[in-house]
Amino acid sequence: MTDVLDPNPIVRRARLPLLALALGGFSIGTTEFATMGLLPLISEDLDVTIPQAGHVITAYALGVVVGAPLLTAAAARMDRRRLLLVLMAAFTVGNLLSALAPSAGWLVVARFVAGLPHGAFFGVGAVMGAHVAGPGRRGQAVATMMAGLTIANVVGVPLSTVLGQLLGWRVAFVAVGVLGGLTLLALWRWIPGLAVAEGASVRAEVGALRNPRLWVAAGAGAIGFGGMFAVYSYVSPLLTEVTRLSEATVPIVLALFGVGMTGGTLLGGRLADRSVIRTVLVGFLATIVALVLIGLLGQWVVPGVLAVVALGVASQVLGLALQSWLMDLSPAAPSLGAALCHSALNAGNAFGAWSGGLVIAAGLGYLAPAWVGAGLAVVGCVIVAGTVVLSRNRSSAR
Q: By the 8 A CB rule, do 333 and 208 touch?
């Protein structure tokens, strides 16, 4: 009876499953980005330099890069609900291990473990979200799940930074472990079972990787998104050393960055439902502009902070569109395509954090990563534009 009265019963039924997926995105987003705000604390407590502490960020990103395609392909025959539960359990354990790490080396290992289920969760979650949301709402369903990740930057990351400043960085990772437990409960309660598609197998998943356009898109995403992470990995020392903000102000800027990411995710979802490729290009161009503005204006408080917020908007328009594009390029294995997007973005995370740390270690200062990042984003944009032009020329030749 309720379904008859509800003008959109499919959307109504999708709310709680999408909420559970968004909570997972919130948990993962908190642990992924909180490390940037905690970096000076980790550096001081474990007696390593800021660039050396940046290896912790790189390790998590490499865990995503490795885990996303391997776990998604290996679990090709597993019910999607069960797989989501297994992945979130592994994520929770990885974060608790991070809190217990006795040294920088062990923390690097623990962050790698915590990163392994990240991409597979978002890949499988994207397919589940599209399933519960119904036809024609894939972009908005994925955006809802990804909004959990971006809202983490509004709430989870600033709070974890404050927790770290008050109680120590280990407490922040314990808090993420608690979030993982709550997500497990929500997934168990609200996510429906979803059998794999007929004919799904490890061979079919791996077969999707033979598409060269999939690798070109993933490579462009990794290079271009590395530009954002070259800056954001070191945003805390950038704000305190260059913009001259107090340490207590850093969580506020991180929250504003998260507001920008949330807006970018919602905008990207709507734009991607209209034109995926166009949204990818717009996202790249906007990211380049934001990075250049940080390089030019980062030493001044108001324009510098606004440029950081703009980077949050642009990066999520780009990230959301890239995920939709990779799903389109792997129709026989959409979970793998979506997971590969997170591999690509976190390869960019690892490479960006390394590149930013390299120029900082060379004594070029905390604004230098913005110019490195802008260059990386330009390369990614050129690759995508070239791919689109070649594809259209081939279509015209036929």
A: yes
CA atoms of 235 and 34, how far apart (whole Å): 11
Contacts of 125 (CB under 8 A, 6+ apart): 21, 24, 25, 84, 145
Q: In the chain, what is the straight-line distance between the N-terminal and C-terminal CA atoms, in Å?
A: 53
Say if CB 38 and CB 334 are below 8 A apart: no
**Residue 229 near residue 32 (C-beta atoms within 8 A):** no
Q: Which two tokens stand for residue 47?
A: 């007696």
The tens place of each residue's pLDDT in the chain, 398 residues long, gives 334 344 444 455 677 888 899 999 899 989 987 887 788 899 999 988 887 888 888 889 889 888 888 887 788 778 888 999 999 999 999 999 999 999 999 999 999 999 999 988 988 887 788 777 766 566 666 677 777 877 887 788 888 888 988 999 999 999 999 999 999 999 999 988 776 666 555 666 666 667 778 888 888 888 888 899 899 888 888 999 999 998 888 888 888 888 888 888 878 877 877 888 889 999 999 999 999 999 999 999 999 999 999 999 998 898 888 877 877 777 666 667 667 777 888 788 788 888 988 999 888 989 999 999 999 999 999 998 888 787 776 666 55
CA distances from residue 231 to 60, 282, 300, 366, 368 in whole angstroms, order as listed: 17, 20, 16, 8, 9
CA 381 to chain centre: 19
Sign of CA dihedral 243, 150, 315, 76: positive
The token pair at 7 is 């003008």
CA 346 vs CA 140, 224, 308: distances in Å? 22, 11, 19
DSSP structure string for 126-159: HHHHHHHH-TT-HHHHHHHHHHHHHHIIIIIHHH
SS (H, E, C) 275-334: CHHHHHHHHHHHHHHHHHHHHHHCCCHHHHHHHHHHHHHHHHHHHHHHHHHHHHCCCCCH
Helices (H), 46-156: 50-74, 80-100, 104-115, 118-133, 138-151
Structure-token pair, residue 206: 């791996």
Q: Nearest-CA neighbor of 123 among 288, 281, 345, 283?
A: 345
- Name the burial class of residue 392, with classes exposed (0-12), middle (13-18) and buried (19+) by CB atoms within 10 angstroms of its CB: exposed
Alpha-carbon distance of 274 to 87, in angstroms, equals 32
